[in-house]
Amino acid sequence: QVQLVEFGGGLVQAGDSLRLSCVLSGDLFGNYAMAWYRTAPGKDREFVASISWGGRNKYYSDSVKGRFTISRENYNATAPLQMNNLSPEDTGVYYCAADRHQVPGPGTTGTDNWGKGSLVIVSS
Q1: What is the DSSP letter of 26?
Q2: Does residue 116 come out as left (phi exceeding 0), alpha (psi in the -120 to 50 range) or beta?
Q3: Do residues 51 and 71 lie in contact, with contact meaning Cβ atoms separated by under 8 Å?
Q4: Which of 25, 33, 35, 113 is 20 to 30 A from 107 (CA-CA)?
Q5: Sign of the alpha-carbon dihedral angle for 109, 66, 86, 68
Q6: Distance CA 4, CA 24 (A)
Q7: Each residue's pLDDT tens digit in the chain (124 positions)?
Q8: Burial classification of residue 109, based on how many CB atoms lie within 10 Å of its CB (0-12 exposed, 13-18 middle, 19 or more buried)
Q9: For 56, how many CA atoms within 13 A lie in the half-sphere containing its CB?
Q10: C-alpha distances in angstroms, 108 versus 5, 50, 102?
């Protein structure tokens, strides 16, 4: 069974950078497209970024485009999310997701492999 574990959350100040990591275990990493979502206080889950199986295709929400970068490191089964120029609006719990059949996006459904989340707090 696939397991996803997120690392790297914490408390930072506006303008700082933070790097989240997601480690997949229980199956071959290359079988999965990877994605990050977040849930801000009082809001629904929001798509942040995703990356295809081979890493060629990457997708971002408009709110993070140009500031966040998703990548994948197949040699250690990790999908990092580099977050730069953070703002208080980026505060939330960040979840990693993995999907064998599609590249997750803002309108997709059916992604059923999720981590437990990592809390990011950006102070002003």
Answers
A1: S
A2: alpha
A3: yes
A4: 25
A5: positive
A6: 5
A7: 899 999 999 999 999 999 999 999 999 999 999 999 999 989 999 999 999 999 999 999 999 999 999 999 999 999 999 999 999 999 999 999 999 999 998 888 878 899 999 999 999 9
A8: exposed
A9: 1
A10: 22, 11, 8
Tokens of 14: 């506006």
Distance of CA 68 to the CA centre of its chain: 10
Q: Contact at 8 Å (CB) between 68 and 58?
A: no
C-alpha distances (whole Å) from 124 to each of 12, 22, 77, 84, 91 are 9, 26, 34, 15, 11
Structure tokens at 1: 């069974």
Distance of alpha carbon 11 from alpha carbon 85, whole angstroms: 14
